[in-house]
Amino acid sequence: MRKVIVISGVTSGLGAELSRAFVNLDWLVVGIARNKEKLKKLSNELGKNFTGIETDITDEKSVASSFNIINRQFKKITLLVNNAAIFKMGEFSQCSYDDINRIIDTNLKGAMYCTLEAVAIMKASKENARIINVASVAAIHGIKGQAIYCASKFGLNGFSEALNQELIQYGISITTLYPGGIDTPLWNEKN
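RE: above sequence
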């Protein structure tokens, strides 16, 4: 039976590259992202092993709807990659409430929403599964000018550690990645 991977934030950068790599490994790839046109373009490029679903991971109804589609179509998730993230560089005192909400909602709550839905599918399939949370070196130590981003990634790290202890008994494991800067649009926009 073929493996199914769900990746958030697939329309650029790391998410797009992961989608290409897993399609080449003959996995069934489900990419979720907000940009419908970019999803369509990626779907045309990657072919029948890629399914793009327009999803706003900051909206729990959008996430629930997308994972209902995934469950109906695939009946399992082998691997979830919480990759979607946004970033803003700047002194905290110069940030707005909107900056706080957008970054926390995407980087932390979005990953939690996707995980909540994926775990239900993973448990029901009774197969070993994994969740990969793409954190950052900013999840390990604070970085000047990145207070909100660091808070979101520290939160993701704590979430991952606690959740791993809960899910291991079901054959679901958590891996957290802590990359530094990656040559992606997210990184290049801030530099």
